[in-house]
């Protein structure tokens, strides 16, 4: 553990209380200069650490900053393969994960960020990822002997994992809009982007499951383009909520991934689309349809006005809630 992480762990243990630089140095057997440098580094990463002469340093007990230490405190020991690394800002957590994969990183690495400058959504769209209000994470997987269908099911697992985590931590009801948008009261709080990468021989190298969650309303509110359709999981910040929610998503996902049993019934329970009139959006056209149900491979069965049916395996729909 680095000096910075050791100092952070001490602050987390004494959250809300002042600890002198002299005591920190003595307890950790480091110099006071090393303590000062560690504090400055943590402050630059967004930690709300107060420094008061003759009192020492104090990590604000009301702060809710994403930290690897904080996430691990909620993870427990059930999935030791999970290795979260937290960044203040990245271009994209999927990009960070991909770079790690190319360096040989093992399955279970999770890139977590408090902000993204180039967050990506489905179909090449940008994903709004402001600082301070969201949880942006990407999980690195190295599945062996996975078929294309199994790879596609990882997105389904992520959607169910997020829905269950949101409900447990917030107490609110979460629904899934096919394929992978998570809604609360009809507004989107989470998007998911999975990317598969293959070796030169065509075999699967890795899959990166990217998850973007709106934990709190952003400062100044959501931009005009998404203000009517976006929402947040929580109404206001509270200590530890982001770390707990991030950990719960990771645990839920790994439970489905490692069990190999799938989660189609849970997906059906959370999916809000079946039984509703929808619009199927295809290149160059929009088609009215009725959502019949979800098949065993998470395809959306739709019926058109002429009575014909189709099972959508990918694509986009709109629904009036």
Q: Could you explain the architecture of this structure?
A:
- The chain is an alpha+beta fold and 321 residues long.
- The protein has eight helices and 14 strands.
- The protein has helices at 3-13, 21-28, 32-44, 68-75, 93-102, 148-170, 241-259, 264-270, and strands at 49-52, 56-59, 83-87, 109-113, 134-141, 175-177, 181-184, 187-198, 204-214, 277-282, 285-294, 300-303, 309-312, 316-319.
- A seven-stranded mixed sheet has the order 3-4-5-9-8-7-6, sandwiched between helices. A five-stranded antiparallel sheet has the order 13-12-11-10-14, with no helix packed on it.
- Helix 2 packs across helix 3, helix 4 crosses helix 7 (241-259) and helix 6 (148-170) runs antiparallel to helix 7.
- The longest helix has 23 residues, at 148-170.
- It is elongated and about 80 Å long.
Task: Please give the structural blueprint.
Elements (H helix, E strand, L loop, with lengths): L2 H11 L7 H8 L3 H13 L4 E4 L3 E4 L8 H8 L7 E5 L5 H10 L6 E5 L20 E8 L6 H23 L4 E3 L3 E4 L2 E12 L5 E11 L26 H19 L4 H7 L6 E6 L2 E10 L5 E4 L5 E4 L3 E4 L2
Parallel strand pairs: 3-4
Antiparallel strand pairs: 1-2, 4-5, 5-9, 6-7, 7-8, 8-9, 10-11, 10-14, 11-12, 12-13
Element order: H for helix, E for strand: HHHEEHEHEEHEEEEHHEEEEE
CATH homologous superfamily designation of the largest domain = Bira Bifunctional Protein, Domain 2
Measured as a percent range, the helix fraction is 25-40%
* Class from helix and strand fractions: alpha+beta
Q: What number of structural domains do the residues give? A: 3
Q: Terminal Cα separation, in Å?
A: 49 Å
């Amino acid at each position: 553990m680095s000096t910075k992480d050791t100092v952070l762990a001490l602050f987390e243990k004494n959250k809300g209380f002042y600890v002198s630089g002299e005591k920190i140095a003595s307890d950790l057997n480091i110099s006071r200069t090393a303590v000062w440098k560690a504090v400055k580094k943590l402050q630059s990463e967004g930690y709300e650490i107060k420094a008061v002469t003759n009192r020492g340093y104090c990590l604000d007990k009301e702060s809710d900053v994403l930290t690897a230490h904080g996430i691990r405190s909620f993870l427990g020991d059930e999935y030791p393969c999970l290795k979260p690394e937290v960044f203040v800002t990245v271009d994209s957590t999927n990009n960070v994960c991909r770079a790690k994969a190319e360096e040989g990183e093992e399955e279970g690495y999770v890139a977590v960020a408090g902000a993204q400058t180039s967050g990506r959504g489905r179909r090449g769209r940008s994903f709004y990822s402001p600082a301070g209000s969201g949880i942006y994470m990407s999980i690195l997987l190295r599945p062996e002997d996975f078929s294309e269908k199994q790879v596609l099911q990882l997105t389904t697992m992520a959607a169910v994992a997020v829905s269950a985590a949101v409900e447990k931590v917030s107490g609110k009801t979460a629904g899934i809009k096919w394929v992978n948008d998570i809604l609360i009261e009809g507004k989107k709080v989470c998007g998911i982007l999975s990317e598969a990468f293959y070796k030169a021989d065509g075999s699967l190298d890795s899959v990166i499951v990217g998850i973007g969650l709106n934990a709190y309303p952003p400062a100044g509110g959501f931009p005009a383009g998404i203000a009517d359709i976006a929402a947040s999981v929580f109404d206001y910040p509270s200590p530890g909520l982001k770390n707990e929610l991030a950990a719960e998503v990771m645990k839920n996902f790994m439970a489905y991934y490692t069990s190999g049993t799938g989660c189609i019934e849970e997906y059906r329970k959370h999916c809000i689309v079946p039984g509703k009139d929808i619009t199927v959006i295809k290149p160059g056209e929009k088609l009215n349809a009725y959502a019949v149900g979800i098949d065993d491979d998470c395809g959306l069965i739709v019926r058109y006005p002429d009575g014909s049916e189709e099972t959508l395996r990918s694509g986009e729909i709109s629904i009036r809630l």
